[in-house]
Amino acid sequence: MIEKPVVLVTGGATGIGAACCRALSAEDFHVGIHYNKSAEKAQKLLAEIKDGFLIQADLSDIQQVDALIGKLKDTVGRVDVLVNNAGQSINADIISMKPEQFDAQRALTKGVWYLTKRILRQFMIRNSAGRIINISSVVGHTGNAGQIPYTMEKAALDAFTKSLARELKGRNILVNSVAPGFIDTEMTKELPEEIKNKIMDEIILERIGKPEEVAEVVAFLAKRGSYITGSVIHVNGGLYGG
After folding, report:
1. What CA–CA distances, in Å, run from 136 to 44, 49, 74, 179, 192?
2. Which residues are 69's β-sheet partners?
């Protein structure tokens, strides 16, 4: 079993996930970089942070989540911190969105629930210690036209955080959400300029956020923050006050 504390970051190869991997590596964690399709980026990140490992799975597939747990058990033998960062955004207005698109968005949330369940049973509850950090979004609180399933799932993730924190009372396992605002990632780069400008007008700090600024909060919750649980921490430059 690995001696250093182990953190698993889902969707860790790109964007906010990659920034979290770098920040947690700097905090002396052995970093598990989970990815689904971004193998090349994951390999590059692993070479950069040095102390970590790669693990691949489609989290919307329950059997692949089971296989992931088996690999963790056999290779590192522990997970001290779980960062549920993996996400997808399937966008369309309610009239044009197909039921199968909605189901695809919901399937990933089910995967997050199931992965967390398995990590808790296999590692954290047995060790009477752990931290779970869910990456949600400001739009789970404000809503956003054309993203109804995505905003529903992000709101659900914050409800999951609050409920799970209560279920784990007395087990020394902390559960929190970090809700980013308008952050400079591949997802936000795809937005039309008029949408970006509209969002920027609402941000008190008058600039887009950096993935590293979200990762700073994640690292704090992973290593410090010992009296914080069941909370949603907003990182949005004043876009939304929470």
Report:
1. 26, 25, 30, 5, 22
2. none
Report the catalytic residues: 150
Candidates 79, 33, 75, 70; CA nearest to 54 is: 33
Q: Which CATH code is given to the segment(s) 6-235?
A: 3.40.50.720
pLDDT digits (tens, 9 = 90+) for 59-105: 999 999 999 999 999 999 999 999 999 988 888 999 999 999 999 99
End-to-end CA distance of the chain: 40
Q: Which two tokens stand for residue 146?
A: 């054309």
Burial of 100 (0-12, 13-18, 19+ CB in 10 A): exposed
pLDDT tens, residue by residue, 102-150 = 999 999 999 999 999 999 999 999 999 999 999 999 999 999 888 899 9
